[in-house]
Amino acid sequence: MQKVVLDGNKRLDGRSFQQIRHLYMQQGVNSRASGSAYIESGNTKIICSIFGPRQRKKKSGVKGQINVDFRFCSFANKDETLHKYASLNEKNIAFQIEQTVRTTLKIELLPKSEVDICVLVLQDDGSVLASSLNCVVLALVDAGFEIFDLVSSCQVIKIQNELFIDSTYKEEEESTGIVMISLMPSLSEIAHILQTGEISQLDMIEATKICLDGCAVVYSLIKDLEKLQVKRQIGCFRALPTELF
Amino acid sequence: MINEPQRIVTPGEILTQESDFLRGHGVSLQNNQLTATISGVVEKVNKLVSVEPLKSRYNPHVGDIVIGRINEVMRKKWKVEVNSTQNAILSLSAIILPDGIQRRRTSTDEMNMRNFYKEDDLICAEVQKIQWQENKIFLHTRSLKYGKLKIRSIDYLLLILGVNGYCWISSPETVPKIDKKNTDKNNWWVSTHQKTDFEKDLSTDPKSAKLRIRKRFIDDESQRYKSFTQEMREKIARTRNSIFVLSTLNMTIDPIAIMKIYSKSLSLQLESKDMLEPNNMMNLIDAKEEEKI
Predict the structure, then answer these.
(1) Which of B10, B37, B254 sits opposite A148 (nearest CB)?
(2) Closest CA to A181 of A172, A171, A169, A194
(3) Please, which pLDDT band fits residue B273 given cuts at 50, 70 and 90?
(4) Beta bridge partners of residue B170, listed in sequence order
(5) Checking CA distances to B221, which of A18, A40, A142, B95 falls within 20 to 30 Å?
(6) Is the CATH number 2.40.50.100 carried by domain B8-53?
């Protein structure tokens, strides 16, 4: 506990226990992709590119398909030993992302098509899954996919008897239990919930509350960004000059 | 043109509490409320609510003219990539044969499919039929207007604006250039010509937007590059940049707008490459506004 807490109420980076990290988000970073987004949550930096919808490579099946490719860059983590198990971890995280995307994407509008989601972690400083999901959602909107709601995600960890929101890598190393929740506020639905490690029932209830608060904050940020993006793009929007014909 | 107050929505926003509205594109019914599923501008027409997206794949409609690239040659049909969620299908029976005769396709025709179109060819076609269940698009090229995009014009610039977001700009005896852009609904064939001594019988009447194409097949590949002038290249580049300016600023791409920007860029004496700088882009667009008023 001493490693991650200073002065009893502050964490190493100066945040309080229930404060999320500073977020930087940008859409349209990859000009070749249908949609893309970049997110910086503290020192965690993730870029997501989405290609599609396009013709399925496999001929069979009628439903739309979502392919998620999640990767850590080889330089993403200072800890070299982590990289040994990275491929296993990557597949697991990719699966989580696919599950969450499935809850929010209107896949029935894409029969026989596939969507390729490529997530690349440039720097891993904790809360990778939550930040990836935020990034993926922004990229989906950028690509023009129809989604039910903007999914915002947040992570809470437990160290000894304290709950910390939006953990850094060091904090995660010390943690005994992690809860990640993805929220769809407009529909009041939880898109995804993932719990690893050990957490008691009471702590789980408390952690859920804190997590949902964090998700609400992230949601308002994502929504503001989206509105700004739309305003900027329709700034020069003009109707068809039919009277000229 | 008065800009009515436009309502901007993001996915998940509630559009209206009433449930007796018809749902259009980009709207879904959740908990008895109409919510948006894409970010864009709300459009209400009588009882129909829809959200106009900023970016989307091509949504096919029967009768649209599209430009596509052949992806696969299959038995009795070609698969064409048209910037939609799926590849479109051009069947062997839906093309016009070179001899122009209406006849049944024989097995010889099947064997010679690659002589008509092969992989990576660019074609211009019209949407014949759509199967909504599976998003299947069927194309046809049953007219001289459509078919493989190769050298067709003589001394003027040929511009095809496909409804699916792809444009084709070409000129005689040069390697044609294809440009992918997001367009609004337009379906125009325009031949805008640059005045030379040779075209006396071509009219510049953009308002009528009539089809003017003269066919002239140049079979020998080497002849294609023979008289490849710098001038023609610049014209194509300028046209392409005009379209790009309209696209970047999310304005409707139609022939008149393109020509206005083109002529303005000439009068401002801008180089083609300088047209894409932000300051110059704004100058070009402002000019367009003045002319409208």
Answers:
(1) B37
(2) A194
(3) confident
(4) B158
(5) B95
(6) yes
